[in-house]
Amino acid sequence: EPEVTQTPSHQVTQMGQEVILRCVPISNHLYFYWYRQILGQKVEFLVSFYNNEISEKSEIFDDQFSVERPDGSNFTLKIRSTKLEDSAMYFCASSRSNAGELFFGEGSRLTVL
Amino acid sequence: DQQVKQNSPSLSVQEGRISILNCDYTNSMFDYFLWYKKYPAEGPTFLISISSIKDKNEDGRFTVFLNKSAKHLSLHIVPSQPGDSAVYFCAASESAGNMLTFGGGTRLMVKP
């Protein structure tokens, strides 16, 4: 069964460092998303991406964040200068349409020290 | 931001009995609702959804009920199995797209 895959599964970084989280969405999906879950809190929407551009983003997704689809398969989330409060589980998701269910990856745990 | 709320952080049910998980929402613009299941160290897995034009959707052991006037939905699992033990998230979106707003989750424990 096709699935969304994410790397790395866990990354530890120093505050102020750049981090790139990688995702390979399901191959015939057209819509891509990043969500995050801070420990003990809700899963929160960060950004959606379609047709090589951001279609929606939340208040969390400030100038420190960026997304890219550098080739036909990868979808990346970059955090330019990490802060302690960026520590969270980051989930990538994809969907075939903008009216159907999202399929989530297993998440990348980011720990900022 | 409490647009989607799951008031019960945990629920314990005996195997074979019915599990009922509840979710309330405040945003009247939501018109598509989903339930996700999450095991530790895994991403959320889609379970079942319902659009606002329906009040019930059934898929095997899982049924979702939507009461638009009360802004309430529930997930029924019957019969419950130990493998159903997980955290269940309710999520909602507006028709404009797939920006999901999640509830805080309910941890279901099904005892053998």
In short:
The complex is a heterodimer of chains A (113) and B (112). Chain A has strands at 5-7, 10-13, 19-24, 31-37, 43-50, 53-57, 65-68, 75-79, 88-95, 103-104, 108-112. Chain A is mostly beta strands and 113 residues long.
Q: How would you characterize the overall build of this protein?
A:
The complex is a heterodimer of chains A (113) and B (112). Helix content of chain A is 0%, strand content 50%. Chain A has strands at residues 5-7, 10-13, 19-24, 31-37, 43-50, 53-57, 65-68, 75-79, 88-95, 103-104, 108-112. Chain B is mainly β. In chain B, the strands form two sheets. In chain B, strands 2, 4, 5, 9, 10 and 11 form a six-stranded mixed beta sheet that branches. In chain B, strands 1-3-8-7-6 form a five-stranded antiparallel beta sheet, with no helix packed on it. In chain B, a hairpin with a 2-residue loop joins strand 6 and strand 7. Chain B is globular and about 40 Å long. Chain A binds chain B through residues 4, 6, 31, 33, 35, 41-45, 48, 55-56, 58, 91, 93, 95, 98-107, and chain B through 32, 34, 36, 41-46, 49, 89, 91, 95, 97-105.
Give the overall average pLDDT of chain A: 93
- Most extensive chain-chain interface: A-B, 27 and 22 residues
Summed up, the helix count of chain A is 0
Range of strand content of chain A:
over 45%
| Count of discrete alpha- or pi-helical segments spanning 4 or more residues of chain B | 0
The percentage of residues in β strands of chain B lies in over 45%
Shape of chain A: globular
Structural category of chain A is mainly beta
Rg of chain A, alpha carbons: 13 Å
Radius of gyration of chain B: 13 Å
Report the count of strand segments of chain B: 11
Low-confidence stretches of chain B: none
- Average pLDDT score of chain B: 93
Return the structural class of chain B.
mainly beta
**Biggest sheet details of chain B:** 6 strands, mixed
